[in-house]
Amino acid sequence: MQGIVNKYNQVLADSRVLDGFHPAPNLVYLWPPALRAYRRIHRNMTTIKKTISDEVEEHKKNLPLSGEPNDYIDAYLMELEELKRRGEMDHYLSESGLRENVVDLFIVGNDTTAHSIRWCVLFLLCHPQIQEKLQVEVDNVVGSDRTPSLKDRNRMPYAQAFTMEVLRLSHLGPLGVPHESTEDADIAGYRFPKGTTFVANVWWCHMNPKFWPDPEKFEPERFLNPDGSVKTKVPSFLPFSLGKRQCIGESLALMELFLFIAIFMQKFTFRTTTGLPHPKAEGVDSITIKPPKPFQFLVEERKH
């Protein structure tokens, strides 16, 4: 899996090389670095697609005839088989859609979740008082005799608010994913024909002072109601995009981040290293996935 993730990361890196060639794609062939990037993209995507197709075919051969599915691919294939048995067609479910979902969930999601965790640790280092609040919450709700689980999530609103604020201020995907208009449209006096590609400025949605007072300040309390519960609908909070191209892994990602933070805060304290510059909440310049800049820290086991 890690080898496939690395190939996908290379595809993203090479895509940035080709960004400026969209108006005149044929010019790629005239500049050797761009041509090499283009060929690597084609080669790596071919490998990724074949690996996923082989995995889907293997699941089809061993698909359970009844009972519980073993994993996501089994569940998807079993639903397809049930639709075929009933003679029903669903244009939202297909084997090609399954392969695309696997890329999103297990390849793209692997990298974005890892970067999100790195951002979480970085913000904990930058705001030790927030780390203390998280530790108090997990101590009060879970204690030290068992490992935090998803059953604790609704009783730990501050941990949820923390992960939401990390997603807002880390700008992990500053431009989201492209969308295409399905019909002609007039917006603010401009004409956009059918087929126009739109790119959302998610960064501005998360930094607009109209919705976020003092937007550069890291403040998990933004996502808490006066009674301490987590806000369920927050204007201008779009870390997973929206619409039909909204990230299908949103629920999974939020659950994973909660578990990581809850377990980390139960067992460890993260501290800055003596003699080295204090880490800053800065990311690598990117219009796709934006990881934090490298930083060093100490992990101290908590004594309960």
TrEMBL record:
<dbReference type="InterPro" id="IPR002401">
    <property type="entry name" value="Cyt_P450_E_grp-I"/>
</dbReference>
<dbReference type="Pfam" id="PF00067">
    <property type="entry name" value="p450"/>
</dbReference>
<keyword id="KW-0492">Microsome</keyword>
<dbReference type="InterPro" id="IPR017972">
    <property type="entry name" value="Cyt_P450_CS"/>
</dbReference>
<dbReference type="GO" id="GO:0005506">
    <property type="term" value="F:iron ion binding"/>
</dbReference>
<dbReference type="InterPro" id="IPR050182">
    <property type="entry name" value="Cytochrome_P450_fam2"/>
</dbReference>
<dbReference type="GO" id="GO:0006805">
    <property type="term" value="P:xenobiotic metabolic process"/>
</dbReference>
<comment type="function">
    <text>May be involved in the metabolism of insect hormones and in the breakdown of synthetic insecticides.</text>
</comment>
<keyword id="KW-0408">Iron</keyword>
<protein>
    <recommendedName>
        <fullName>Cytochrome P450</fullName>
    </recommendedName>
</protein>
<keyword id="KW-0349">Heme</keyword>
<keyword id="KW-0472">Membrane</keyword>
<dbReference type="GO" id="GO:0005789">
    <property type="term" value="C:endoplasmic reticulum membrane"/>
</dbReference>
<keyword id="KW-0479">Metal-binding</keyword>
<keyword id="KW-0256">Endoplasmic reticulum</keyword>
<dbReference type="GO" id="GO:0020037">
    <property type="term" value="F:heme binding"/>
</dbReference>
<dbReference type="GO" id="GO:0006082">
    <property type="term" value="P:organic acid metabolic process"/>
</dbReference>
<comment type="similarity">
    <text>Belongs to the cytochrome P450 family.</text>
</comment>
<dbReference type="InterPro" id="IPR001128">
    <property type="entry name" value="Cyt_P450"/>
</dbReference>
<dbReference type="GO" id="GO:0016712">
    <property type="term" value="F:oxidoreductase activity, acting on paired donors, with incorporation or reduction of molecular oxygen, reduced flavin or flavoprotein as one donor, and incorporation of one atom of oxygen"/>
</dbReference>
<keyword id="KW-0503">Monooxygenase</keyword>
<dbReference type="InterPro" id="IPR036396">
    <property type="entry name" value="Cyt_P450_sf"/>
</dbReference>
<keyword id="KW-0560">Oxidoreductase</keyword>
<feature type="binding site" description="axial binding residue">
    <location>
        <position position="247"/>
    </location>
    <ligand>
        <name>heme</name>
    </ligand>
</feature>
